[in-house]
Amino acid sequence: MRTVLFVAWLLFYVSLLLVARRMWTGKYSRSSVARTFFMNALTGSEFNAQGMQEWYRCSPDLLGEKIRPLFVQSQLDEETQAFLQRSEEKSGWVFTQIYHSLFSTIFSPIISRTSINGFLGRGSMFVFSQEQFRQLLQIRPDWIGEKLLDLGAGDGGVTEVMGPLFKEVYATEVSLTMRWQLQRKNYRLLEIDEWQKTGFQYDVISCLNLLDRCDEPLQLLRDIKKSLVPGTGRLILAVVLPFQPYVEIRGSWVRPAEHIHVKGTTWEEQVKNLSDGIFHSVGLEVEAVTRLPYLCEGDMHQDFYVLDDAVYVLKPQD
User: Fold this and answer.
1) One Pfam family of this protein, by short name (predicted)?
2) DSSP-H helix ranges across 30-93
3) Could you give the CA distance from residue 134 to residue 286 in angstroms, rounded to a whole number?
4) Which of 115, 135, 181, 231 is in Cβ range 3.0-4.6 Å of 155 for a Cys bridge?
5) Cα 129 from Cα 184, distance rounded (Å)
6) 176-205 exposure pattern, b = at least 16 Cβ within 10 A, e = fewer
7) From CA 232, how far away is CA 139, in angstroms rounded?
């Protein structure tokens, strides 16, 4: 009897997901952003391409006299479009998405979403293309650095963009399943309390969308500053705006012990406040800043998800 009930429940669940999938992919489907990209792929219209450029829009005059000349205008490029296309294709893998949804439903009460994504090999992130990375750091196409450290590297998707430009690539990650993904890609894994005590320093440290998800963000910035190669070392920092800090602890989201209060209501105001207040207080100086979409692979309901990122290049103050 139990077997019959389980099979009946499973069939009902799959049917429900298929109906939801059909609703989301129909005439009135998905988010306006996803529809814009889909129509742009079909028509190639200039209007839709301009709609995607809203992700990169900034009013430099609102950044203030100090930050305005440091703003780098980015745009939708081929690598970003390729990520969006892959996300759209994966979203259409119906049975894979059903399996992912069922697995998440069963295990989400006991396993964090990050670990579930690592186990399933889904939810890859995209912050910048390699060309955008070069542009921000102002490095030549033939430039090769010594050491890169990617903090909170996740599955290593963004690390793969930066990695080819360095001789040695190090990474940290808390999630066990994400660490498996990083080990498969042969990155040198360091513990979260080890990377700042290795005895050597890094040419570039990347801290991408981690500041609002760690318990002591100001201490993290101080440790990064001390771990950079003197003079030439740089921090590339991505921050989701509006800034809303929470820490995931055993599947629950709580406020961090060290709270950063970022003033301002617009993207430009918060970028300015972070630059003038938070970074300056820990001895870091802005060298460049840009606006980029923080993209994540979607699911059966949506092709991809997008948040607003401010991406900084920071150097220790003289």
Assistant:
1) DREV
2) 32-43, 46-52, 78-91
3) 16
4) 181
5) 22
6) ebbbebbeeeebeebeeeebbeeeebbbbb
7) 12
Find where tokens 């080890």 sit: 194
> What token pair was written down for 160?
């793969």
CA distance 250 to 257: 16
Tokens of 53: 């450029």
* Structure-token pair, residue 162: 């930066």
Amino acid letter, 159: T
- Which 8-state DSSP code applies to residue 98? H
Q: pLDDT tens digits for the chain (318 residues)?
A: 656 555 555 555 555 444 444 433 333 333 334 333 333 333 333 335 566 788 999 999 999 999 999 999 999 999 999 999 887 776 655 555 564 565 565 555 556 566 555 545 555 789 999 999 999 999 999 999 999 999 999 889 999 999 999 999 999 998 887 888 898 889 999 999 999 999 999 999 999 999 999 999 999 999 999 999 999 999 999 999 999 998 877 667 788 889 888 999 999 999 999 999 999 999 999 999 999 999 987 665 676 789 999 999 999 997
Q: Among 306, 266, 310, 300, which residue's Cα sits nearest to residue 52?
A: 306
